[in-house]
Write a structure and sequence with these properties.
15% strand; single chain; eight-stranded parallel sheet; alpha/beta
């Protein structure tokens, strides 16, 4: 499974190719699905381009994307979009249109409460476990661990020379991960080395403008679809090299 991460926390300063409006997100997601993405992770945006959990923005984003694709669509619940855990939970309970899944960063304050609120509403949870945090230990002790959809092993090491090693350390720290499926991915300079490692290990991964703006050869990507197409090639090539 290759998930497309459509936009992340990027904004207009990252270039016009980053989709920020619901319509642009939907078009970009549909193009990525057309070349092989089988799942979508998106950050709904406020009118000024900031990540938001507001019911209006979440509904508009999901409705636009679902008008063009039929694959599962997930959203972020990152603390940067709503720093107060209680307010984050309140926002989730106000959603009028529900995503198929939502990511919860387990190192963030209120992660357990946020995950519980999502599960109560019937929204599947992706447990975001970042390297260089206590997320893996907290997730291992979580009673909600066995109930998550998958674990997003997120490698924050952006150095292409060390990101693979950091990824292996993160996977070791995760251990059995409550038996849940793993999706391994990197970011910025570590994106492509970690994606190839996911291929060699037979793990799901993700690729898109949230994680990187560049192709493996250093050229700037033209779209999420271009990143997904190349990601599928790299992932399969690494898998076959075993």
């Amino acid at each position: 499974m290759v998930q497309v991460c459509v936009n992340g926390g990027r904004g207009s300063g990252d270039g016009a190719l980053v989709p920020l409006s619901p319509g642009a997100m939907a078009d970009s997601a549909a193009e990525a699905v057309a070349v092989g993405a089988s799942d979508i992770h998106v950050h709904p945006k406020s009118p000024c381009g900031e990540d938001t959990l507001s019911p209006k923005a979440v509904a508009a984003t999901l409705e636009q994307i679902r008008s063009q694709v039929t694959v599962p669509v997930g959203v972020t619940t990152g603390a940067w979009a709503e720093p107060d855990p209680a307010a984050r939970v309140a926002r989730i309970r106000e959603w009028t249109v529900l995503p198929d899944h939502a990511s919860v960063n387990w190192h963030e304050p209120g992660a357990e409460q946020v995950a519980a609120a999502l599960l109560e509403r019937g929204v599947a949870v992706e447990a975001g476990i970042w390297s260089d945090t206590d997320g893996a230990a907290r997730f291992a002790a979580s009673p909600l661990g066995p109930r998550v959809l998958r674990v997003l092993a997120e490698v924050t090491d952006q150095d292409p020379d060390t990101a693979e090693g950091s990824a292996r350390e993160l996977l070791a720290a995760l251990g059995p991960a409550h038996g849940r499926p793993l999706l391994l991915h990197g970011e910025e300079g570590g994106t492509w080395p970690v994606l190839r490692l996911a291929g060699r290990l037979g793990l799901a991964t993700r690729i898109g403008l949230e994680d990187t703006l560049f192709l493996p050869d250093g050229q700037r990507a033209a779209s999420n679809a271009e990143l997904v197409a190349e990601g599928l090639v790299q992932h399969e090539r690494a898998r076959r090299a075993l």
